[in-house]
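Example A, followed by Example B.
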Amino acid sequence: MSYYQMATKNVYVSPPKKLSSGGTRGNIPLGYTNASSKRNGVYYLPRGYQNKRLPVMVMLHGSGSSGSQVFFYYKSLADKYKFIFIGPDSHYSLNWLAPADKTRPFTEDYMHVLACYEYVRKLKNVLFDYNRIVMGGNSRGGYQAMNIASRTDWATHIQITHSSVTAGTAGPRVAPVWISTGEKDPLFGPGTTKNNIARFIAAMPGFKNSFTFEVFRGGHALNQVAELEASIKWWYSTAGARSSKTYLKLLV
C-alpha cells in the first residue's frame, strides 16, 4: 500500500455547510482515533469557487488549538483574497507528532495532513491553482509545516508564524519561506528567530536566498491582521517552487 493510499483510506465525505457570507465551510472527518482524540479538520471554499482554479492554504495550528480555531483568523482573508483554506487537526491538541529524524519523517500527523489536502482536492467543482499552494504553520505547527513542505512536491510556498525552523528534520525540497513574529513574542522574538534562520541556512545552504523575515506589533498570539495580510500578499507576489499537480512522491 502506498503512502497516499494509507493517507486517504479512512476518509469519508461530510456534507458541506454554506455560510451566511456566501462561502462554504466543511468538516474533514477522518477515521484515525486514539485514546484521547479523534482527529478531524476543516476546509473553506470562498464565494464563487466553483470550477475556478484558486490558491490553496494548508495551515497547521499551534499548541492547544485546532484547525477550526485557526480558521477563525483566516476566514475574512480567504473571502477577500479568494483562496481555499484547509485546517487539519493534530493528533494531540497540545502538539504535532514530529519526525524522530531524517530517516523516519512520516509520522501519523504527516499522513493526516496529506489526507486532508487530498480530501479537499477531490471535492466536486473544486480546482486548485497548483502555482499557489502554501503550507503554513503557527507556533508548534510551524515546525511541522517546514517538515511537510520540504518533503512533498506540491507545496509552492512555506509560511511560518511565531515559530522556528530546524534543519534536523527538514527535507531536500527548497521553496520560498515566510517567517514572521511579534516584536514582544516571548518564545520566538526577533533576535531568537534571526539566529534560528541563520543556523538553518548554515545547515541547509540551498535555502540561503529563500527566507523573508518580518516583525510585527504584539507578542506570540496569532491575532494581528496586518501580519496575516502581509504574509498573503507575499505568497501571491512571490514566485513559488514548481509544484506537481498531485503529490506523486514523498521526498526523504
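Example B, a separate protein, is given below in the same form.
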Amino acid sequence: MGERKVLNKYYPPDFDPTKLIRNKRPKDKQEKIRMMLPMTLRCKTCGNYLPRGKKFNARKETVLGEEYLGIRIFRFFFKCTQCSAEVTMKTDPKNSDYVAESGAVRNYEPLRDQMAADEVLKEKKKAEMEGDAMKTLEHKTYDSRREMEIQDALDEIRLINKRQARVNYDDIIAARQAFGREDDEEEFDEETQLESFLQQKRTSTIADYDDSDDDEDDELSMADSNHQQPQPQPNVSSSSASA
C-alpha cells in the first residue's frame, strides 16, 4: 500500500516544462451538476408544475457576452419531470434572483410585486426630493423625527437594562433560600403535629382496648364464682313426715 502513495515524482534531467501541451478549456463548456429549483415553474409544454426545492440533474454553462458589473451570468438546462421537455433558466445578479428563459414560466409571487412597488416608490420619492425644495425639507424633517423616536426608544431600553443591572442577584438567591427554609420548617411543624396527633390516637385506642379487656376478665371471674357456689338441697325429711 505504501508504494502507491507517492509524494514526490521523478523528473528526468532533460525535462522541459515549456514543451508540455496544455489543453485550453472552452469558455462555453457545459458541466453536469446536481441542483435544486430556486423557484416554482410551470412547464409550457404539458402544464406540469415544478415546485421550489425540486432536485434535478442539470447542465451549467457560462453565458457569453452577458455580465453585470463584472459578475458572470450562468445558464442552466434541465428537463420537465413529466414530458421531458427542456427548460432553461439563468441567473440575475442585478436582483439576486433567477430568470426563467425558455420552456417554462415562473409562478406568481406576491413578494416580488411588493419589492418592485417599493423600488418604484423609492425612485418616485427621490425624484420629488430632487425637484422640490419643500418636499426635501419635509422628508428631512420626517427622517429626523423618526431618528429621534428611535433614539428615545433606545434610551428607554438602556434605562431598563441599567435598572436590571442594579439588581443584586445574590440577595434574590438568599431571599429565595430563606423562603424555602421557612416552607421546610412549616412542613416539618405540620408533620410533627400530625405524628403527635396520631401517637395520641394510638395511645387512647390502646388504653380503651386494655379497659375493655379488664371488664371482660371481671365478668368472666364473676360468672365462674357463681357457677362454683353449692345449690340448696330440698328438704326430704319434712316431706316424708307429712306423708
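On Example B: Residues 236-243 have pLDDT under 50 and may be disordered.
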